[in-house]
Design goal:
The structure holds two protein chains of two kinds. By secondary structure, chain A is mainly alpha-helical. Chain A has eleven helices and two strands. Chain A has one domain. By secondary structure, chain B is of the alpha+beta class. Chain B has a domain of about 100 residues: 2-Layer Sandwich (Alpha-Beta Plaits), CATH 3.30.70.3270. The N and C termini of chain B lie far apart (about 55 Å). Classes of the chains: A mainly alpha, B alpha+beta. Chains A and B meet through helix 1 of A and helix 2 of B.
Chain lengths: ~350, ~160
């Protein structure tokens, strides 16, 4: 029992710590990259290159007055920020992030929920939980803009969940399972799944942008129309939780893209067996982090490039474009593997 | 006028090539020279003809050029100028006993400079006038004259008064 529990706790603590730090620094990255894309410098006063800016932001959020507006529904109003942050964090439980390490004869997987066979299904389930926080925030904060924002968000997230599934299923078919580790192994042996499943990759990418409420699909927030969307009425630490949830979602989404389509921690031409066990594990984790960091950059890059879609365009893209394309591609992949057998 | 909508080719309707175009454009900007002026360390140099704080100029004889005609006071849209006229022994008989400009009111329009028949009031390049107290923004005659003397580029303006 202890043999299982202690490594698990260590893994959880380390992963959560790294994830939350990464979230903090993703906000800095967002501000820095947006500035550089617009020929500005961005925050550069707090510490070298503004590196302590997230700390300053955190302190600011902590000391800000926490305002609860009149006539909000207290229970769900207080529950909503947690409901967005927690699903974003627990998604990381099923994401394997490196080669296994062997210490004193036992091998440890770098994976919190070891050998979870339904990892992908869990991911889909938990990622759709995040929308509850948005619904609760919109319904309970007694503000029409929040309500409109949350309505849009629900519609968008629920719709794009289908496209997300359709992007994942071809991968599951070609691997023969929902186990994320096996998906990475399959790509380690052969080629990264972007190449054979490029259509699925595009569908998944678009869907995951909509799912994380990032631009060009940030209609739930839509500053120019809805003030701040579902989190208009939140301030202080509660707002910070929404904020962190959003960025944690972004990191999780990037990790997912990396695992499903870009070979997880695998480098096609370098095999980790040539290094020692520990060195291999460290290297694999670093490679994984680098890939995730690239996709986080990609998320930010896209945000500061594309304008927001109109609402009907978002729905049209989903139901009239992605859905047929996804089904068609799924059919083709299914037929291919059926005929192969 | 009827603007015809361009008929998009099928790959343009896919939207993705355009996205890629946009991404490349923004990526190029990532490495471009930044335009931000790092303010306390770097200072922005105003261009020629910049309208900053209006100041009083001194003539070559060392007296203020202002003859207290009060045209600037009358034209000033926010009424930021207040002049109390006085008499002297000097051939130009009038001079301002008191001359106040309230920079808290001034909108830097430059009408005073335009209307002044003696070229006595001039808009300087100075623009960092902020203060924590509004009363500190009301500048008196000696301060305005001193600010006028500090400006090397206003030297050429120090011509003796034209006759007529």
């Amino acid at each position: 029992m202890v043999n299982i529990l202690i490594p698990a706790i260590i893994k959880i603590v380390v992963v959560l710590g790294v994830l939350l730090t990464a979230v903090a620094y993703t906000t800095l990255a967002e501000r820095k990259i947006s500035a550089y894309l617009q020929d500005r410098y961005g925050p550069n006063r707090v510490g070298p290159f503004g590196l302590f800016q997230p700390v300053a932001d955190g302190i600011k959020f902590f000391f800000k007055e926490d305002i609860t507006p009149k006539r909000v529904f207290r229970v769900t109003y207080y529950l909503a920020p947690m409901c967005t942050l927690i699903p974003a964090l627990i998604t990381f439980a099923v994401i394997p992030f490196g080669e296994s390490v062997s210490l004193n004869g036992t091998s440890y997987r770098l994976w919190i929920a070891e050998n979870m066979d339904l990892g992908l299904v869990y991911l889909l389930a938990v990622s759709s939980l995040g929308v509850y926080g948005i619904i609760l925030a919109g319904l309970s904060s007694n503000n029409k803009y929040s309500l409109l924002g949350s309505l849009r968000s629900v519609n968008q997230v629920v719709s794009y969940e289908i496209a997300l599934g359709l992007g994942i299923l071809p991968i599951a078919i070609s691997c023969g399972g929902f186990n994320l580790d096996e998906i990475v192994r399959a790509q380690e042996k052969g080629i990264w799944f972007v190449v054979p499943h490029f259509v699925a990759f595009l569908i998944f990418l678009v869907a995951i942008f909509a799912e994380t409420n990032r631009l060009p699909f940030d209609l739930p927030e839509g500053e120019s129309e809805l003030v701040g969307g579902y989190h208009t009425e939140y301030s202080g630490l509660r707002f910070a939780m929404f904020f962190m949830g959003e960025y944690a979602n972004m990191i999780t989404a990037s990790a997912l893209i990396v695992i499903l389509f870009f070979g997880g921690w695998s480098l096609t031409f370098i095999k980790y067996e040539i290094f020692g066990s520990i060195l291999a594990a460290i290297l694999s984790v670093l490679v994984f982090c680098a890939k995730v960091a690239f996709f986080v950059f990609f998320f930010i890059w896209v945000r500061w490039t594309l304008p927001r879609f109109r609402y009907d365009q978002v729905m049209n893209l989903m139901w009239a474009r992605l859905l047929p394309a996804g089904f068609l591609y799924l059919l083709i992949v299914g037929l291919f593997y059926f005929l192969l057998e | 006028m009827i603007v015809k909508r361009p008929v998009l080719k099928w790959w343009e309707r896919l939207y993705l090539p355009v996205v890629e175009d946009g991404l490349l454009t923004t990526f190029r900007h990532l490495f471009k020279k930044k335009v931000t002026v790092q303010y306390p360390e770097e200072r922005w140099v105003p261009p020629e003809g910049f309208r900053g704080a209006p100041v009083l100029l001194t003539g070559l004889d060392g007296r203020e050029k202002c003859t207290s005609c009060k045209l600037c006071m009358f034209i000033c849209p926010p009424q930021a100028i207040r002049i109390v006229a006085g008499e002297t022994e000097h051939p130009i008989e009038k001079y301002p006993q008191e001359f106040y400009i309230d920079y808290g009111l001034c909108i830097f329009c430059g009408y005073c400079q335009e209307v002044c028949p003696c070229e006595a009031i001039w808009l300087k390049h100075e623009f960092e006038l902020a203060d924590f107290d509004r009363t500190n923004l009301i500048f008196g005659k000696d301060k305005l004259l001193q600010m006028g003397r500090q400006e090397p580029y206003l030297k050429g303006k120090e011509k003796p008064l034209k006759k007529g």
